Amino acid sequence: MTPPAPTRRSGRWIERWDPEDEAFWRATGERIARRNLWFSVLCEHIGFSVWTMWSVLVLFMGPEYGLTPADKFLLTSVVTLVGAVVRVPYTFAVAVFGGRNWTVVSAGLLLVPAVAAFLVMEPGTSFSTFLLVGLLAGVGGGNFASSMTNINAFFPLRRKGWALGLNAGGGNIGVPVIQLAALAVIGAGGGPRLLLGVYIPLIVVAAACAALFMDNLATVRNDTGAARDAARQAHTWIMALLYIGTFGSFIGYSFAFGQVLTNQFGRTPLQAAYLTFIGPLLGSLVRPVGGRLADRYGGARITLWNYVAMAAATAVLAAASMRKSLPLFVCVFVVLFVLSGLGNGSAFKMIPGIFQARALAQGLTGEAAVAQGRRLSGASMGLIGAVGALGGVGINLAFRQSFLSYGSGTGAFVAFLAYYGVCFAVTWAVYLRRPAGRVPAAAAASEAEARLGYAEV
Question: Rounded distance, CA 309 to CA 429, Å?
Answer without folding.
Answer: 18
